[in-house]
Structure to design on (506 residues):
């Protein structure tokens, strides 16, 4: 049994609370939250604290707050030489105050409020200063996920940049698709099966082999038709740059 | 019962052949293919022809060939005043030789060889010169799909451009994510759950509301860390342009 205190009440914190509550091997001791009501639907109110002085003893303190608050929160913890980890993809482990033993517990997923996720499939990337602490967070990670990996701070940074491309930037392209539909009295619903299939394709096919479209075929006639069609300068610039990038890939082969 | 001849043997043609063979309301009369062997695993060889003169009478001739071959193929058909449609997203209906009655039968999906698709969910966008012909292709479309829409050539062009953004360009971002993983000894498998969740999110959430990440938060510290991390100039340029586009969206709100 590993005892845990979660510090934070945002999306990641809430999904971790739900996941830990379902595990028999984890005792969720407390949740630290400035606004008690933001987690009161998940855990009984006597376990929610909003004063650092009230935080109890536990094997693991898990800081799930926004990136720029991690350092500050870790400094405010009123104890020393305990295991404190953060859940951020972009922050190095060393951002945590060195008065405690540092680690990282990074679930690689995009979390939406009120949308349940299947934690079993979510990769959890771990890092710890001390081997014994790594074992502790590995035990915790394995109770909720079947994909648990040791990832250095440098690798985690790479992974986070890659995640920005395949998640944040991809979603922005969905947004542009939606805009083009709206401007032409078309329902965005029409594009959804294509969006899902495009994502599912790369489960079994490398993105390189899955590439299709006018840029891949270097079909300059269709590309020019599309560029003439687009009136928004920003959309046009994105179309040009990504088309050029796909064409350049073809030349490398 | 609608009788159909399919002209072509590529991805779209093969998926349509499979779908039509499963329908009781469609009689697949023939498939025209230069290489008989490319469709011989789908349909009996006596129904495959490679000489235009051998094409039989049918209610509907469906040209599923590459965009730049459509006009030429439609000219070579040795008959007149019959219903001939193409399956392209980017070509206007009028590209078809006007000696026959024109139409468009555009299934909006990315087709992969040997990967079955569920046609029921694939939107089919229809257009026809004549009302009676529209009814015919609508009957055919409804036997294989539950999402059938009348879409003008101009709207279809918009839809095709939007599809390039949400499919071709999105896949290219997956490819860049894969590259970044490989360069840092990380498995691309780690990103797959994120890719699937990012796509599934927009089924219930608008892409605008689903947007997350450093650009959405205008988190210049993380953005600069990422730009310093990226060494490939092309990746850097794409990162900058898409980040700027997301930040500019935020300013519009």
């Amino acid at each position: 049994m590993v005892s845990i205190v979660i510090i934070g009440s945002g999306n990641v914190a809430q999904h971790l609370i739900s996941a830990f509550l379902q595990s028999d091997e984890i005792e969720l001791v407390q949740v630290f939250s400035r606004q008690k009501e933001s987690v009161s639907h998940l855990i009984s109110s006597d376990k929610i604290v909003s004063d650092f002085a009230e935080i109890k003893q536990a094997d693991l303190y898990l800081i799930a707050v926004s990136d720029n608050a991690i350092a500050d929160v870790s400094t405010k913890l009123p104890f020393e030489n305990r295991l404190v980890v953060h859940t951020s993809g972009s922050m190095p482990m060393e951002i945590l105050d060195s008065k405690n033993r540092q680690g990282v517990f990074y679930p690689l997923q995009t979390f939406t409020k009120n949308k349940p996720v299947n934690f079993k499939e979510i990769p959890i990337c771990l890092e710890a200063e001390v081997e014994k602490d790594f074992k502790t967070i590995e035990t915790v990670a394995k109770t909720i996920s079947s994909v648990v990996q040791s990832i250095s701070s440098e690798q985690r940074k790479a992974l986070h940049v890659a995640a920005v491309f395949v998640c944040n930037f991809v979603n922005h392209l969905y947004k542009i698709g939606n805009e083009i539909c709206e401007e032409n009295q078309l329902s965005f619903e029409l594009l959804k099966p294509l969006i899902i299939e495009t994502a599912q394709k790369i489960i079994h096919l490398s993105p390189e082999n899955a590439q299709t479209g006018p840029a891949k075929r270097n079909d300059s006639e269709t590309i020019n038709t599309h560029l003439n069609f687009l009136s928004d300068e920003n959309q046009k610039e994105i179309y040009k740059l990504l088309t050029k990038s796909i064409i350049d890939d073809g030349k490398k082969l």
In short: Helices of chain A lie at 11-21, 70-76, 131-144, 153-183, 192-204, 207-210, 220-229, 233-252. Strands of chain A lie at 2-7, 26-32, 48-49, 60-63, 83-86, 101-107, 124-128, 148-150. The first strand of chain A starts at residue 2 and ends at 7. Chain A has a mean pLDDT of 95.
